[in-house]
Amino acid sequence: MCLGVPGKVISVDGALATVDFWGVRREVRLDIVDEPVEPGDYIMNHVGFAIRRIPPDQIGETLALYDELLRAMSEDDLMAADVRGEINATGEKKRV
Amino acid sequence: MNASSRSPVNGKIALKHGAGGRAMRELIRDVILKGAAPAAFEGVGPDAMDDGAALRVGDQWLVITTDSYVINPPFFPGGDIGRLAVCGTVNDLAMMGATEPLALTCAVIVEEGFARADLERVRDSIHNACREARAAIATGDTKVMGNGELDGIVLNTAGVAFTRRVVTDRALTPGDRIIVTGTIGDHGLAVMAHRHELGFDAQLRSDVAPLNALVAAALDAAPDGIVAMKDPTRGGLASALHEMAEKSGVGVVLDEAKIPISDEVRAASELLGIDPLHAANEGKAVIGVRAQAVDAVLAELRAHPLGRDAEVIGACVAERPGFVILDTGFGRRLVTEPEGELLPRIC
Amino acid sequence: MSEPRAAGLRFQDPKTARRMADALARAVGEIGRAPVSVMHVCGSHEQAIAKYGLRAAFPLGLNVIMGPGCPVCVTDLPEVDEAVALAGQGVRIFTYGDMLRVPGTVKSLADVQAEGAKIDVVYSIGQAAQLARKSAEECVFFASGFETTAVATAAVLLANPPANFSVLSAHKYIPPVMEIVAEMPDTRVEGFLAAGHAATITGWGIFERFVERHRIPVVVAGFEPLDIMAGLLTLVELIRDGRAEVINAYPRCVTREGNLRAQQVLWKVFKPTGGRWRGIAHVPNGNLRLRDEFAAFDARRRFTIDLTKLWDYAPPSLAQSCVCGDIMGGIASPTDCPLFGRECVPDNPVGACMVSTEGTCRIWHQYGGHLNLGEER
User: ipTM, 2 decimals?
Assistant: First the structure.
């Protein structure tokens, strides 16, 4: 149930930050986030409170994690991928 | 609790019965229209529950429509109740193919204590919107009610116009394309953010605008190519498409990536947990077009300032008549109609 | 304009999602029996699955069960009754949007609002406290939500709230109910997809003992389409390999120890107590109630809430055919309910699962979770 939306911090005034949600700006409270938050940081907002400062390197790490999941899959089963690649026409199997 | 006490229209009328969706159509069908004398004219009558009626007069059709406007707050970003009352009626005429309003009527019911300056503001915007739509108010009515007997101000407008060809909301056939004339959800989200004092700092503005010139251009471009029209007001794109699909007996498949939505509306919808397809529009049309006429209609729409974001968002299919299906790129899901008032989904 | 989204926060690439779906189908196939049943315990997971049409991308052999993940749904009748009674006593009530239509024993807040009670929907409890500050009236925030939302309530109570402001807490704490589901005798659940934002607060470490005790894997997942697909893929791989482990598949928000500051704020204000979850069971430590130090802000202690008028009412008879409990326990699907889509519709809900936009039945009704939409891939 916890509708969370990520946003980018524009400015910080004490325990209040102005956060840009790519089209809408809103004040977000910083009472409960556990790291210092600065302009330019990404945060996860829930009901007007930042619950997490999203470390920028974690975004890349998540993508790497997902790549890893898929790579493990494709190495496991190159045969099946080849078959599917032929069915799906060229180009499909070359995508990493 | 027996079955009848849970039927859609209970002993008392609820707000949902005015929300533009299924509950409202049931109220109209089961309560309002019951016992009406059969229409003594040839054309589109109340049974059609279209945007207006069309009466055969000689070799033309007289299109007639009426609508009442209540909105809290009466002034909102991008417009006010006066502009809404003119545009709403002009657009209802246009959706029937009647793009040159002959005359409008305007009734004003105002609460004791309403500020004169506010009334003058509403009046000015009524007149401005009329100029924009090339429409004129031919007659009107004014009433004042006691304090607390009504919430501020209520407007009613009616409009009449002639047309040679009536466009209904029920003539879609498989293979037809669905065009929307611009970004969706703008009015609904702007009013909601303003009403609930959500503290949003955003360019959320109502799209309220008269569409008759835009629609006239599209109709000129493809006189026989446009087969159905509807303005997606209360209930949003979802309700409009549902009604069109249901009445036409076709399924509609939408490509989510093609549906124009502004960044602001997308962001606000996400924050509030609202489906932008459910949010009201006051300056957009949904147009059903024969496949061969799509390019001509789209080009004409995009050449007009109110249609520059027009897109083909989907197509009609023979399967699953009455259903609206959204292809999200990940999979498909049903689009349903909003039930009751839209509320921020937050907790 | 879309630059920051593209910068990676949205994880919404359909092509990658389809590759993950292929991988998921393969992993389910490798288990060699069907169905493989997993449960998510977060309404927002269901919401995202529905919104993006992901269910159509799940392999047929994978049964993704919606657990008791919607705090609005599990708010018990007497809790709604308390809010309705307070509103009837002339107190101004603030609440989150979808608590408005949750049926109590006799009425919902929407019903008493129609009768003239002062009820305002807010986006944030912070907004409610601000409005209370400007008001001379007694203002009560009817607070629902899991620990993620309860932290916000706690923060407001710690930040010098106005004297006319108090909280009627219906907050719930998720970890105990997972124990209950895991111990249900009929349970088919082979793995849990844990709620990423609740775990942002509590940390994934709290699931370690759970996994040891029940020998059932847990994967913490986020809410973007790729987060969900990756979470399910990871979970199914754990099931396939017979590994009872916790894996954090949402590392950009969740750490092992969680948000320690938020935990401090939460437990300073709230204490866990046992209580009934609507349609589930009595859940030991499943409810969050205000500690004695905050008695002045506890609506239950500040007001005498008179529920005696409700004693004449038996539970509505329809509610007895409602299978909400089984649905939230993962034993039944909405279409197993005789009321679903007939007597019980979003407009006129019988059970709690139809009330909230995150309720299982509401979502199935809204997005057609039971329909095969004939995706031609």
Answer: 0.87
